[in-house]
Design brief:
Oligomer: single chain
Order of helices and strands: HHHHH
Distance between the termini: 49 Å
Length: 169
């Protein structure tokens, strides 16, 4: 075999090996069905929710999702129109200002609705469950803060296991 053919063959073998290993690679972290789902299961177990409470929470969640969707459906066209108007040098300033005011009112209404729904959400739980929930939130916020301190300002890719440091847990 000539030298060029040998180099080509070795390159082809390396490329096939690389592609094969990439296709068969496993994720460093196990994939989750959804962050909220995993967290809510922990809360269900810790708070010992009754079936009635679980049903109310699911109904509450579905209602909030519908509200969020309705808000997005109103906000997205307004945002798109505002972008178009701001890109147009001949656009009417009054029209832009009115659109900004409408968007601000929509955001304010959404924040008010979020506040009211938080109060309604708390009514689903017993006082003991609310106390336990508050403790869990404090624990999670402390963990988050300690992670931020440990990782620095951005943390990011350099601090993930498997990239520059071995997976030790």
């Amino acid at each position: 075999m000539t030298r060029k053919k040998m180099i080509g063959l070795v390159g082809l073998v390396l490329m096939v090996a690389f592609i094969y290993s990439t296709l068969n690679a496993q994720a460093v972290h196990q994939p989750r069905a959804g962050r909220a789902g995993a967290f809510s299961q922990v809360l269900k177990d810790a708070l010992q929710l009754t079936p009635e409470q679980e049903k109310k929470l699911e109904e509450f969640r579905q209602a909030r999702l519908a509200e969020a969707k309705a808000h997005r459906e109103k906000m997205v066209p307004m945002r798109d129109e505002l972008r178009k108007l701001m890109a147009d040098p001949r656009a009417d300033d009054q029209k832009i200002n009115n659109l900004i005011d409408q968007m601000a009112k929509l955001r304010a209404d959404r924040m008010k609705a979020l506040y009211q729904s938080k109060k309604a959400w708390e009514k689903i739980f017993t006082p003991e469950q609310l106390k336990k929930l508050k403790e869990y939130r404090q624990d999670f916020s402390l963990r988050r803060e300690s992670r931020k301190e440990r990782m620095g300002r951005k943390g990011g890719m350099m601090m993930r296991p498997g990239l520059f440091r071995p997976e030790t847990y």
